[in-house]
């Protein structure tokens, strides 16, 4: 397992190169996001998705969240993207707002049929650098079942052992960061399914018709 100190420029570059290579082949990478450390791998790797499910103890058929490097990438993942979704991306991305969208039916990946795809563009600079090299990544908190999300690489290793090929260590996560807000834009109006960092009032400044679940 390679642990790269991302606070050192040279080590960070080597770590990002190794992480991109590992993710593309379906290995698991430990990466910082705004609120914790996350397990990531290539969004279209069936091996990677199966590996995530094994490590997390998830059964097949559960949707896996996706991180993207920018709004333009979403056009290849989702269909019939409503104007409300485009407006929310423009207002809150990169940031702590995740959108539930109708996936493209032709994609070959380990996502269940009939379920929305959950996408977000993160704000963390290390996450954005890796996404810029890999494209969309499956991402889920690097915690064992029933345990809190890890705030450090050491926390993640303590919970999941050496499940990762590469660890991008950017130091401790912000313990006060709120989780991402999840907004469902698959229906006629945006619906906040999970409250979080972006408030309903802020969302309504962009989409006045938005409601809370």
Q: How does this structure look, described?
A:
- This protein has a single domain (2-212), classed as Alpha-Beta Complex (DHBP synthase), CATH 3.90.870.10.
- The chain has helices at residues 9-24, 46-56, 71-77, 83-92, 125-134, 153-160, 200-206, and strands spanning 2-5, 29-32, 37-42, 66-67, 97-101, 117-120, 137-141, 166-169, 181-184, 191-194, 211-212.
- The termini are far apart.
- Strands 1-8-2-3-7-4-6-5-9-10-11 form an eleven-stranded mixed β-sheet, with helices on both faces.
- With 213 residues, it is of the alpha/beta class.
Describe this protein with a few key phrases:
alpha/beta, DHBP synthase, 11-stranded mixed beta sheet
CATH classification class: Alpha Beta
Which structural category fits the helices and strands? Answer: alpha/beta
Poorly predicted segments: none
List SSEs in N-to-C order: EHEEHEHHEEHEHEEEHE
CATH homologous superfamily, by name?
Answer: DHBP synthase
Query: How much is the radius of gyration in Å?
Result: 17 Å
Q: Estimate the mean pLDDT confidence.
A: 94
Find the count of extended strands (DSSP E, 2+ residues).
11
What is the assembly state of the chains in this entry?
single chain
């Amino acid at each position: 397992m390679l642990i790269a100190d991302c606070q050192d420029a040279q080590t960070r570059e080597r770590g990002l190169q190794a992480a991109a290579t590992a993710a593309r082949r379906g290995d698991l990478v430990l990466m910082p996001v705004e609120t914790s450390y996350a397990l990531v791998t290539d969004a279209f790797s069936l091996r990677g998705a199966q590996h995530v499910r094994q490590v997390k103890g998830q059964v097949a058929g559960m949707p896996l969240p996706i991180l993207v490097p920018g709004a333009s990438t979403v056009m290849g993942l989702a269909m019939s993207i409503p104007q409300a979704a485009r407006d929310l991306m423009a207002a809150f991305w990169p940031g702590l707002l995740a959108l539930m969208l109708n996936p493209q039916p032709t994609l070959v990946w380990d996502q269940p049929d009939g379920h929305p795809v959950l996408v977000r563009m993160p704000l963390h600079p290390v996450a954005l650098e890796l996404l810029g090299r890999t494209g969309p990544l499956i991402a889920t908190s690097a915690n064992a079942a029933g345990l809190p999300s890890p705030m450090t690489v050491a926390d993640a290793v303590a919970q999941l052992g050496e499940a990762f090929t590469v660890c991008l260590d950017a130091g401790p996560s912000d313990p006060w960061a709120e989780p991402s807000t999840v907004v469902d834009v698959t229906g006629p109006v945006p619906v906040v399914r999970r409250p979080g960092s972006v408030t309903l009032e802020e969302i309504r400044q962009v989409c006045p018709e938005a409601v809370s679940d």
